[in-house]
Structure formats: C-alpha cells, structure tokens
Design goal:
The chain is of the alpha/beta class. Helix content is 21%, strand content 36%. It has four helices and ten strands; from the N terminus they run βββαβββββαβαβα. Strands 1-2-3-5-4 form a five-stranded mixed barrel. Strand 2 and strand 3 (25-30) form a beta hairpin.
Length: 170
C-alpha cells in the first residue's frame, strides 16, 4: 500500500481528475468509499480542492478525502436542488466587463453577489475604457452597486492594465 499524501486538484473531467502532489500533474480517480459516501455532486472533488490521495505505482492516483474548503463557487441547475462545485479555495475573483456595448449593471451585480457568496473577494475589472464616451460615470455606477469592491478600469491602449491588476495576481 502506498502512502497517502496531500495533493491539489488541478483538472476535473467526468469523474477523472488531474492532481498535483507538488511534482507535476498526475491522473487520479475517486476511491470507492468516497463515491459511496457522496450524497450530492458537491461532495466530489473540484478544481482547487486539497485532497488526501494515494499515488499508486503504475496506475491512477486514488483520492480518498477532500480537505476543508475555504471558498467554493457553486453552480445550481435551474429547477433542481443538486449543486456542483465549479472551483474551490479561490481567494480573489476578477469580474471582467467591457465598458462599451455589453455593459450591464444588473449582470455585474449578480456576479458580485455570487463571488461574495462563494467566500472569495471580488475585484471588478472594466475593460475597453478607451471606447467609452463617459468612463468616469460608468465607473461610478459600478462602484455604487458594489460597495467594498475594488473597481479598476483599463484599456489595451494604455500600459496601466497589467500594473493595475498586479496586486491581485498572486
């Protein structure tokens, strides 16, 4: 029997996973016990989860247990009670929206709410500042619907975009 170690889920696709023990990605699957005890889809590993896994020689690693989640983005299917964890243990969420044609305050308000609900800190990044006739007014509108959230406005024509995002990218 191999030793159980801590790994991070870096990829998930139809019951198969990519996990990293700190040495690169390795294929993994759920243990039979984890599958048997799972009562709902959110009981399965998601990208970002820390897990206890066994790195078997010559085969897939086996995920035995999910460690506690600090945050979780949860997707609920319309009309259903089942929920799926899309990503776990996210610290900061960059919510991007263009300041030109697709600008929608209500949508951004929903995104901010989902981010707070997940346990992650939202940061709003408004793009295409150069294509907006009154960027200052739009920025003020966004700030008004998202109290306590940093709002950044950037343009690909200016060299401020990467510098503005740097503090949020760890």
């Amino acid at each position: 029997m191999e030793t159980i170690s801590i790994a991070r889920v870096v990829r998930q696709e139809k019951g198969l996973y990519g996990i990293d023990f700190g040495t690169g990605e390795r294929a993994a699957e759920d243990s039979g016990k984890l599958r048997f005890e799972a009562a709902r889809p959110s009981d399965f590993p998601a990208v970002g989860d820390w897990v206890e896994a066994e790195a078997e020689t010559g085969g897939n690693a086996i995920i035995h247990r999910i460690l506690g989640r600090r945050s979780a983005f949860i997707r609920r299917a319309a009309g259903e009670k089942a929920e799926q964890v899309v990503a776990a243990n996210v610290d900061t969420v960059l919510l991007c929206m263009a300041l030109n044609g697709d600008f929608n305050l209500r949508r951004m308000e929903r995104y901010v709410s989902i981010a707070w609900e997940s346990g992650a800190a939202p940061v709003i990044v408004l793009t295409k500042k150069d294509l907006c006739a009154d960027a200052a007014a739009r920025i003020a509108e966004v700030a008004a619907i998202a109290p306590g959230v940093d709002v950044l406005a950037v343009s690909s024509l200016e060299e401020d975009g990467c510098a503005a995002l740097a503090p949020y990218l760890k």
